[in-house]
Amino acid sequence: MVPSEKLHEELVRVRGLVKYFPTDDGVLRAVDGVSFDIVRGETVGLVGESGCGKSTTGRCILRLIEPTEGEIRFEDRNVMAMGKGELRQLRREMQIIFQDPNASLNPRMKIGDIIAEPLVIHDIGTKQERRERVTWLLGKVGLDADYSKRYSHEFSGGQLQRIGVARALALNPKLIVADEPVSALDVSVQAQVVNLLQDLQKEFGLT
After folding, report:
1. Is 87 exposed, middle or buried, given 0-12, 13-18 or 19+ CB atoms closer than 10 A?
2. What's the rounded Cα separation, in Å, for the pair 131 and 137?
3. What is the rounded distance in angstroms from the CA atom of residue 116 to the CA atom of residue 131?
4. How confident is the model at residue 2 (pLDDT cuts 50, 70, 90)?
5. Can you list the domains of the chain with their CATH numbers?
6. Residue 154: which residues within 8 A CB-CB, separation 6 or more?
7. Full-model pTM
8. Which residue of 53, 60, 201, 203 has the lowest C-beta tally within 10 Å?
9. CA dihedral sign, ordered 105, 107, 108, 109
10. With contact defined as beta carbons under 8 Å apart, do 120 and 130 qualify?
11. How far apart are CA 143 and CA 136, in angstroms?
């Protein structure tokens, strides 16, 4: 849960965000002057037709792709001015759930290693502590601990997206960018994943 004294604090500020991509025919204006604020604990949805720049906006906030121009602030820190070291630390607090869970998981890695990878990258915990964290995270997303020993091809789309959610939660982030996390799933599974995300948001105070 978000502490009551922080409920109305601004977590993210975006001003005049622009992202252009060069093409053979000129310039593709993927994002052109987008501005918005996100308050701590809030859910904000970007709505628009396919190809209008929703995913690009989310990835620009995390600087997974570099914006052409604009201002991005996270807890009043200037994300655009950060170097590699600062960005590395920032990404402990900002994570993403990708649209296609199958494409975002390494098929050569066991599920437990995939979920633990952010902990390894940031040198958090011992091997035993990471294993315990993976078991705990799998339980939080409604999956058995034994699944950690399996590979991604052994799971359904809904299960894979739950694994993606567990990976995003591994570092206990403050912000999660969910890039159309249910659009690649069957309709019967979509509601389950949405409900899971809502429950986790309440429990962990996610934005």
Report:
1. middle
2. 10
3. 8
4. low
5. 1-90 (3.40.50.300), 92-207 (3.40.50.300)
6. none
7. 0.88
8. 203
9. positive
10. yes
11. 10
